[in-house]
Structure formats: structure tokens, C-alpha cells
Amino acid sequence: MLAGIGGAEQVRIAKGWQKLDPTTKTASQTLRDGYIPGDLGFDPANIRPKDPLKLRMMQEKELANGRLAMLGAVGFMLQEAITGQTWGAYWGITPFD
Domain range holding 57? Predict the structure, then answer.
């Protein structure tokens, strides 16, 4: 797992950050021109819109749905913290019914 995370981070760093200056061996600590944080070019289903306006709308929807999912997860965690039971056990759903 550590190797997988390290590999993914290496790809992200290589795509997003400026190269090292060969004379000083330091980086400028800036992102590459045109790089959008999180964009690693992975789109196997080819669903990324070509139109910049449609891409922006898709990114906004993705952020909104991600935030909604996080709020839902917080609700599950709060219910478990308050009742001491998972959501399924609380509602009478047991595994392997």
C-alpha cells in the first residue's frame, strides 16, 4: 500500500510541480503553467468535457457531491457515536439476514 501511495504521489509531483533548477538544485516551489491541481490526465472513459465552461460546471458538481457525501458520512459516524451501534444494527438490519 505504501508503494502504491508513493507511486501516485510521485506521478502527481512530476506532473504538477516545476522541475529543479540544474544550477542550484532547488525548485521554484510553484506549479507548472496550465496545471489544474488534481488533474493527472486519467480519463479512461473519456468523460472529461472539452468545453472549458462545461468542464468548470462538472468540477463544481463534483465538489458539491463530494461535500454532500462527507456530510452523509459524518451523519453515520455521529449516529454510531451516540447510539453505540452501526446504522444497520440500529435499524434492526443484521448481517447475513
Answer: 49-97
